[in-house]
Write a structure and sequence with these properties.
About 40% of the residues lie in helices and about 20% in strands. It starts with a helix and ends in a 7-residue tail after the last helix. It is extended.
């Protein structure tokens, strides 16, 4: 994710200044930025695609179980389950989204029940 800190340092790296727009310091604008040079300096996140078999192994569910998690009419529906990406006839998931989903599920299962809090 490109944070304003990384963005600012990348702008300074290509000898441009970050200027506040209209006195509001929450919104920043750039004057005279060559974005092709700017993007060379910014760290680009790696994107890894997982096919259904990879997702199945990672979350320990069958292929049918994964699609049940995506179906709002199913009893196994998980609203936080990432949606797949279609490339041609194939279906993939972004690995970082599956990892984030698993982290949320683990954190939710480790929370004490509301009655114990």
């Amino acid at each position: 994710m490109l944070t304003s800190e990384k963005f600012g340092s990348a702008c300074r790296a290509v000898n441009h200044e970050l200027l506040p727009s209209s006195g509001n310091t929450n919104h920043l604008s750039l004057v005279g930025v060559d974005f092709s040079r700017l993007l060379e300096k910014v760290e680009k996140p790696q994107i890894f695609l997982l096919p259904i078999k990879g997702v199945s192994q990672k979350i320990a569910r069958s292929r049918a179980g994964i699609y049940d998690m995506l179906n709002p009419k199913s009893g196994s529906y998980e609203p936080l389950m990432p949606k797949p990406i279609r490339i041609g006839r194939r279906v993939y998931w972004l690995r970082h989204e599956i990892d984030a989903f698993l982290e949320v599920m683990i954190a939710a299962n480790r929370q004490p029940p509301l009655a114990e809090r």
